[in-house]
Amino acid sequence: MKTLVAGTVPVDKFPYYVGTPSFDGKNLVLGQKVLPIGMGTLSLYSAAYLTIAHLKGEPPTLMTVGDVGKADGSRILYQKLTEGIEELKPDVLALHYVMPIITLVRALALKLQKINPKPIVVADAGFMYAFKASKMGHVCNIFTPDPGEMAFLADKDAVHPAYLERHLFEIDSTSVESLIEKVKDVEGLPKMLVVKGAIDYIVLDGRILFKIDDPMVPYLEPIGGTGDTLTGILTGLIAHGLPLEKAAYYACKINRIAGQLSNPTPKTRVNEIISNIPKAIDLVLKI
Amino acid sequence: MERGLIVFNHVKEAFKAEKVLKASGFQIELTIPPKDMVKGCDLAISFNLNERLAVERALMENGVQYSDIVDVVKVSTKPLDIVKKVDYGDTIMFRCGSMKITIDKRDGIILNISGGGCPDVPYLFLQLVGKKIFEAKNPTSIGYSLCAYSLGKAFEEALKFYENSGRWNSSS
Asked: A116 touching B, CB under 8 A?
């Protein structure tokens, strides 16, 4: 399957890039430029890349541009994605870091709705915020929130996790299941949610399909990028052809085991976990 | 009291305006813009509308750019400022909204930053991780988004925790 990962990188004025970078396990080489894997789009891309490579699939394409928060690169990304999606024709589209801009994501959503066949869309980070705020999340197949972001999804009027209702923030990590109940009533969300946290939840149409808490690796939460790797592995498994429910279940397992294999502490960097993804795939899928 | 609302094109300008107006003694509140003006990642400032001219002057004199000032009847949605903690023993994580910062209790080093979705989050990770919290810049002074705002709240709690734990003097 053809996979496209789109998101910004935290380098000011980094030029627009679309292509397949080479990956040496620590860095991604985009044309003449070398970017180290930190948290964010490059973590997601690297996790997807390794998952797909290990399963002997077609390497994912990366669409990216620099943005340190000024929204300049994000505007370019929305535009290029909306204009180029028909030509790129991905089967799987993973959307990641971007400045949430409602008008621009709405244009992208309308374009995605018109494409036949529509790619399987997984949205995380800023793209997830933008789809939710614009009430166009139903165009996506999967959102991948953490408990704080679940509270944001459960608050039908919130346009950003910084604005969610205080009582929802109070209960978020202690009662994810009550938030799952609440999102049933929120319009404009995808059918499937993969809620990543101390316990991962796979939710379909408001119903919990799977709760995954094994292995329990408590230090994963503070490590920047461990949510990104989960979304990347999920993207890779979908590209391998697994049904969404199975891909989600195995992605949670593989991410936990890759984490466990790294013997993590709150100081661990995500690239240590990423390097264990192939081994974790073997252990989970019994390859 | 009738309130006015200052609306910005960029969250960064709202951060700047907050500093300027607070330093000038105005009673202000950070808040969400009106529904029809929300773009996605926005922050507005509400103030006493009677002080409009003085507020405009303070912003102009300090080079703060804003897109509009509107009258509002009621402003109720403030950004989240509650911070939760998770104690891991030698390290401790502070979380506001979806933004998390983890420090080493012994030396105050910022060990990790996670969560969020705006593009300055990975940028802030690169700028802050590895630095001591009492020497690092507040995320709101170098970030641009609401995620930076939330991280700033978590950062302030982490700094307060570190200072109150009495290690400030022994480490600096």
From this structure: no
Write out the DSSP string of B18-42: HHHHHHTT--EEEEPPPGGG--SS-
Q: In what order do the strands lie in the sheet with B44-48?
A: B28-31, B44-48, B3-7, B68-72
A3-285: CATH topology:
UDP-N-acetylmuramoyl-L-alanine:D-glutamate ligase (3.40.1190)
Instruction: Dig out the tokens for B86 from the structure.
Output: 């998770």
**Helix A147-154 × helix A176-183 angle, to 10°:** 30
Per-window interface: B 144-163 vs A, CB < 8 A: 144-150
- The pTM of the full predicted model, rounded to 2 decimals, is 0.90
Domains defined along chain B, listed by start: 3-72 (3.30.70.1530), 84-171 (no CATH)
Its ipTM equals 0.91
Per-residue pLDDT of chain B (172 residues; tens, 9 = 90+): 577 899 998 899 999 999 999 998 888 988 888 777 888 888 899 988 778 878 888 999 999 999 988 877 544 567 888 899 999 999 999 999 889 999 999 999 999 999 999 999 999 999 999 999 999 999 988 988 889 989 999 999 999 999 998 654 554 4
Q: Which residues contact A220 (CB under 8 A, 6 or more apart)?
A: A226, A255, A256, A259, A264
Between chain A and chain B, the number of residue pairs with CB atoms below 8 A apart is 174
Backbone angles phi, psi at A61, to 5 degrees: -90, 145
What residues does each domain of chain A span?
A: 3-285
Which of chain A's residues have a Cβ under 8 Å away from the Cβ of B125?
Answer: 10, 38-40, 224
Strand partners, B132: B109
Q: DSSP class of residue A90?
A: -
A residues 25-44 closer than 8 Å to B (CB)? 38-41
On whether any CB of chain B is under 8 Å from the CB of A128, the answer is yes
Question: What are the pLDDT tens digits along chain A (287 aa)?
Answer: 999 999 999 999 999 999 999 988 788 999 888 998 887 999 999 999 999 999 999 999 999 999 999 899 999 999 999 999 999 999 999 999 999 999 999 999 999 999 999 999 999 999 999 999 999 999 999 999 998 899 999 998 888 888 877 777 777 667 899 999 999 989 999 999 999 999 999 999 999 999 999 999 988 888 888 999 999 999 999 999 999 999 999 999 999 999 999 999 988 989 999 999 999 999 999 86
**Residue for token pair 């397992």:** A253
Phi, psi of A226 (to 5 degrees): -75, -25
